[in-house]
Amino acid sequence: DTAVSQTPKYLVTQMGNDKSIKCEQNLGHDTMYWYKQDSKKFLKIMFSYNNKELIINETVPNRFSPKSPDKAHLNLHINSLELGDSAVYFCASSQPPGVERGYTFGSGTRLTVV
Amino acid sequence: QQQVKQSPQSLIVQKGGISIINCAYENTAFDYFPWYQQFPGKGPALLIAIRPDVSEKKEGRFTISFNKSAKQFSLHIMDSQPGDSATYFCAAGQSDYKLSFGAGTTVTVRA
Prior knowledge:
- The complex is a heterodimer.
- By secondary structure, chain A is mostly beta strands.
- Chain A has no helices and eleven strands.
- In chain A, strand 4 (31-37) and strand 5 (43-50) form a beta hairpin.
- Chain B is globular and about 40 Å long.
């Protein structure tokens, strides 16, 4: 049973399109994240939700909009895709600080904008 | 601005050798220091973590050494195996949920 699952695994789309990536976790964690991994493998946080509330919103273009319908799901919608958005996007979940804070990552969505 | 600096960028080690990856940080508010292992096409997976009140933590062949005064920590992989070939990330976190990751080290273990 996959702990953090993302769909789709691969996404190839044209510039200007709008796309969504979905994430679900079955670990019972309260906190979920979106991270972006660039071509040099650098991992950078984009957003975090704790129990459906946005708690981290890094300097990300407002073309990126996260949505958390419940604490087990965190989706990422991207408008007007640009070439520079090509990357691997990882969803992750964790317990709150003070408890064991190890992240559990999904297997990633490789987004290619052409 | 990268809050955690990791080196080397890559390393090659013979089977049975020791791999050492170093990380340094500036923010003294960090109180949680995990290491993640990532295989190609997979997400990072938590390997081992340490808190600053401990100077060393060992789990199997993996050991974290932590030097609070120097603001440095390192991962040692003992008796390296070909299956250890992966990218390793150090990270640091504080009470705001966010983990800041190092740039990653690609480890190649030659048989």
